[in-house]
Every structure is written in C-alpha cells, then in structure tokens.
Amino acid sequence: LDNLATVEKRAGRYAEALRMAQESLVLMRRAGAHADVALCLNGLGVLHQALLDPERAQACFDEGLAITEREGFVSTKGYLLANLADLALLRGDLDRAALRADQAIALARQHGYKGIQAWTYMIVARVQQRRGDLASARRSLAEGMALAAEIGLKSRWVGSVLPWAELLHAQGVLSVGLLGARDDLEIIKGDAYYQSYICHIPRSTIELG
C-alpha cells in the first residue's frame, strides 16, 4: 500500500495517495513494524505538507523522529530531520529550519548519506537566502550540487532549480515567474513538490528572464 501511495503521489492524485498511506500506517502499527511505521509517517508528513496541512505534517514528522531516536533507525532519522527543516522553512521559522538542517547534515555526514546531505544543503541555501546571506546561500547550494554530482543523483540537480531561481531573484539578476505547465499540473504552491519523499522537484515550470 505504501508503494502504491507513492505511485499515486507521483501521478498527482494526492487524496488517493493519502488514503493509501494512512491505511498502510494502520497495518504497520498492528504488525509492530517500527521501521516501516517511521518510514510511513515520513511519507505521510510529506503528503500533508504538499497538501498545505503543516500541522498534520508536523505531527507525522515528530512521531516518526521519536521512533527513529528510540529504535536507532539512522537513515530514516536523517530524512525526517531534513523534512522537518523543510517544513519549518515553509512555516517561516528560519531558526528552527536551520537547526534541523544542521542536525540532518551532521548525521548524514557521520554516516555517509550524501544524498541526504545534498538535499539538506539546498534547504540551508534557501534559509540563508531568506536571511539575506546570499554569499553563504551560493556556497551551500554549490556544495549540495557537488555532492549530488558525486553520487550521480540527478534528481537533486533538478531540485536545485528553485533555490537557484530564488537566489538569482534575490540578487536582482533575473525576474522569476512560475508557470503551471498548461493543464498538465495543478500548482499547489510555488515550491510544492512530488516524487518520493527523497526528491524535491518543483511541480511547476520556472521561467527565468
């Protein structure tokens, strides 16, 4: 069910994806499969965030993080920390976003999870950009892209488009517009995303210039 939920999410059918993910979570809890419960909560949190329900997203991420800390599920903890950073950024809490991002990067660096590092550096870049520290934002974004290139993670290169666009716009270099890809995709918000919880791909076409 959890895999089917991912398929529905990729197709943009969020309501059906949410229903399947919630059903999967019930089954995982009954089975006492703590690792799967934590993963499922992470995916559910991402769905709630994409549907602009930050309260439910926060609850899912927090519960998932508590499980990973209790059971020692390191990689899932890294994803949850990065998602919590992204959610805090969405909610405008830059201090919390920076704290969670630092925790995610430290854990990922310690255990060699370069994919988590790459993604989280892009979140850090957006935090720094919103704080007006454009030089640091450029360095963080370049670091994330370098890590993505090192491990051949092309989805991170795609996910870097929005941070780069925001950074260029903040520098006054280019005007930035978000286009809805005709009738193919409905824009929920400018930096909404789809794919798996690992990927961070804008659900829109970004026009520069």
Overview of this structure, please?
- This protein is mostly helical.
- Helix content is 70%, strand content 6%.
- The chain has ten helices and four strands.
- The strands form two sheets. It has a two-stranded antiparallel sheet with strand order 1-4. Strands 2-3 form a two-stranded antiparallel ribbon.
- Helix 3 runs antiparallel to helix 4 and helix 7 runs parallel beside helix 10.
Layout of helices and strands:
Layout: H1 2-10, H2 14-31, H3 34-50, H4 54-71, H5 74-90, H6 94-111, H7 114-130, H8 134-150, H9 154-159, H10 161-170, E1 176-179, E2 193-194, E3 201-202, E4 205-208
Antiparallel strand pairs: 1-4, 2-3
